[in-house]
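Annotated sample (chain length 295).
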Amino acid sequence: EAWHLANFTYEEFKQRHIDDYKKLFDRVSLNLKGAKFDATRPTDKQLLAYSDSHESNPYLEQLYFQYGRYLLISSSRTKGVPANLQGLWAPALRSPWRGNYTININLEENYWPAEVANLSELVAPVDGLVEGMAVTGRHNAQHFYGIDKGWCAGHNTDAWAMTNPVGTGNESPQWSNWAMGGAWLVETLWDHYDYTRDTEYLRNTAYPLMKGAADFLLAWLIPNPHNRQRQITSPIRATVAAVSMAEPPTSPSSASSSRIPSREQKPWASTTITSCSCNQPSIACALTISVSGAI
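Output written by the structure step:
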């Protein structure tokens, strides 16, 4: 029997859980027009009707929104250990994708709702993970890429803040050698500052980590031989490189661009970095990394 359950009945333990999560959960209510509780069908049946038959179901949309908040509340409370692909509920001893963090989209997606859904403090575990990645990522930058400035990470990390390229010998370096994971992940830290306007957090936590990620990228960039005014990454996928060099994007793509908030901005030095880790070779993804001159 688990030690933390030994002295509680089921009802006591359930009430402890409700009292704990509702302090955060009750901050937001969502009421959509036409939403009505369906007592005749379980959730999975409602979901199938919604997706397969395009049934309108505002109640299910409300439920889905709040269920996502509940999952984040329940799996993002441990310092340095954010919510991973399966949260706390993976049944297997060896989870799919090793139970790790995929940081070319999935971990970031987990935290997109955190600020807008009034769960700001639940981002703190990401801070701790990124702090660890900044340490291992310096070695990664030096030994894998020959860059002694800043830090970087591949597309995957774990609870021990792994940053090196991953794979078991059978995967392609097209995605395994993608070194932009750290740069993309620090946007979550910027978003936290953007919502809270906590300058102490920016000065002591977010900015040093953001700067380290940007320092690596500035050393990684090379001039585009077809447009010396534009910086690009190298190596990149040949198909993407051909698209990027033939017709450089005028602005970052909506799929993978860092958002630079406009309010209360100081002067920014900005550079556009063309790279791609997706499986769409006809699309040149762009990622904008900006470094503030002064904090």
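Annotation: The chain has nine helices and six strands.
Annotation: Confidence is low (pLDDT under 50) at residues 236-295.
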